[in-house]
Design brief:
Layout (H helix, E strand, L loop, with lengths): L1 H20 L3 H4 L3 E3 L6 E3 H5 L4 E6 L8 H12 L5 E6 L10 H11 L5 E2 L12 H9 L9 E4 L5 E5 L8 H12 L1
Parallel strand pairs: 3-4, 4-5
Antiparallel strand pairs: 1-2, 3-6, 6-7
Amino acid sequence: MLPRIASLTLLSLFCAPLWAADCPPLLKGQGELQQLRSKERIDLCQRFAGKPLLVVNTASRCGFTPQFKGLETVYQRYKGQGLEVLGVPSDDFKQEADDSQETAKVCFIDYGVTFVMSEPQAVSGDDAVPLFRELAEQSSAPRWNFYKYVVGRDGKVIASFSSLTKPDDEDLLAAIEKALAQ
């Protein structure tokens, strides 16, 4: 039994640097985000490296909040092909709930979200978290809530979409399918 444990330990020592090396700057710079209403932390490299990703800055008191339903539909449609969705609530545009319990209620109970949601974060300006600084560098900073970024397996932004773009928009879906095909 001991040799097997030693083998697994050696394997993890040699593979861990490879996993870290395969993590693109988009995810590596951020490290971790606190998961919404959970003690769990989201290790962006471990969770999303090498996977197509849709990143959306959200708000629970916005006219675009009903887009959660469409985002969940997109996630259900493509998750079997490897798509991940990351929702990042933000009060940068003054439309996020005052506490994460209300944010979680809107996401999980009102709209049935099952994709990954973080605790509220700054997504624009000098205070933006590293993930959104990198997204802005590769594309543009979010101008409002529900700005959408489609990211390829290589960590490069394939396309970004304004808040006005609904989750079932054919251009958004085409960008997601391009990310899945990589």
